[in-house]
Amino acid sequence: MTSHPISGYTRVYAHFAYPSEHVRTPGVFNAYFRRRGIDAVCIPVKVAPAGLAAAVAMCRSWENLAGIGVTMPHKETIAGLLDERTEGVRRAGASNVIKRLPDGRLLGGQLDGYGFVHGLKTNGFDPAGSRALLLGAGGSARAVAMELALNGIAALRIANRSRDRAEALAADVRREFPELAVSVADASTVQDATLIVNTTSVGMKPDDPLPVDLSGLTPQVTVADIIMKPEVTPLLEAARERGCAIHPGLQMLVGQLDVTAEWLDLAPAREAVGDMAVAR
Ligand SMILES: NC(=O)c1ccc[n+]([C@@H]2O[C@H](COP(=O)([O-])OP(=O)(O)OC[C@H]3O[C@@H](n4cnc5c(N)ncnc54)[C@H](OP(=O)(O)O)[C@@H]3O)[C@@H](O)[C@H]2O)c1
After folding, report:
1. Is the same domain home to 219 and 158?
2. Domain total in the chain
3. Quinate/shikimate 5-dehydrogenase/glutamyl-tRNA reductase domain: from which residue to which, for each copy (predicted)?
4. Assigned domain for 259 exists
């Protein structure tokens, strides 16, 4: 294993979260940097919503900062605090990775959706033609919804605790993909779904309920969760018991390691990712 000791040359990837105690991203990225011999370190940055704008402003003058990773609850708010955005951020209205340009400007990118779908495909599931039930309408849900639409799903139904957020996401997906059948669910039920994706945080705590009523779930349905801790959530466990194929959340992060390092210029680029063009 190649490993660089942290030195004055080391580049920093700052991971913004609130809270940050549960996050797995720094550990996964640091193992990845070691594996690829990249002289960079990922650090957790616990920043509350009230301090986000000040933290972002500070990053403009942080010269050895390669970029910022973003998770709950900042993905949507941070998209409005940046100097430039990619097409993927414009489309999703949320950013999960920010590149610090040499002059200090911050360019927001979006790789969550790519990571999610890449993870599904790597594990043998192509979402094309699926009738997708999306649980949640937060920052990650936005990216996942847009990427599923880009990858040819047949229909999208969105169920979220706050219906107005689900309606807003549905409207944005319809604007970008007018041909796609998009609806907002009255309740979290399986109905005719062939793919279920949990993007809510329900399932992170041991006493959480299931995020969807599983009556009617058949083994033909594929069930994915984007929660990383626990690795197999109660939803995935219940789906596995019913004979369904399951996709744990870690796959979504693993699916974006290479493209993140390459986009942040920490590693030579091998693959172009379409939605990373700068929005005009
Ligand atoms: N695997 C990965 O690579 C990866 C990447 C990013 C995020 N994640 C995980 O994805 C989850 C969401 O992250 P995010 O950044 O999208 O967060 P977010 O923007 O804050 O969205 C949170 C979502 O969860 C819902 N929610 C929260 N508490 C709930 C409750 N008690 N009951 C019902 N719904 C509830 C919210 O509903 P409301 O709209 O009603 O508030 C919203 O839809 C987190 O678990 C995060 O760790 C994983």
Report:
1. yes
2. 2
3. 128-176
4. no
Sign of CA dihedral 52, 140, 278, 62: positive
Residues 78 and 101 in one domain: yes
Residue 211 CA, closest ligand 1 atom number: 33
Co-location of 208 and 177 in the same domain: yes
From the list 108, 133, 135, the residue with the least C-alpha distance to 201 is 135
Question: For 225-241, how does the pLDDT look when each residue is reduced to its tens digit (9 = 90+)?
Answer: 999 999 999 999 999 99
State the CATH number of the domain containing residue 61.
3.40.50.10860
> How far, in Å, are 185, 262, 267 from residue 271 at the CA level?
37, 8, 11
Cα distances (Å, whole numbers) of residue 242 to 169, 217, 220? 30, 8, 10
- All residue ranges of the chain with pLDDT < 70 are 1-2, 271-272, 274
Express each pLDDT in 136-178 by its tens digit.
999 899 999 999 999 999 999 999 999 999 999 999 999 999 9
Segments forming the whole domain that contains residue 35? 11-110
Q: Say yes or no: 129 and 242 in one domain.
A: yes
Active-site annotation, residues: 75
C-alpha 72 to ligand 1 mean position (Å) = 7
Do 125 and 226 belong together in one domain? yes
Q: Which atom of ligand 1 is nearest to the CA of 72?
A: 15
- Quote the ligand 1 centre to 78 CA distance (angstroms): 15
Ligand 1 surroundings by CB, under 6 angstroms: 71-73, 75, 112, 115, 136-141, 160-162, 165, 199-202, 204, 226-228, 249, 252-253
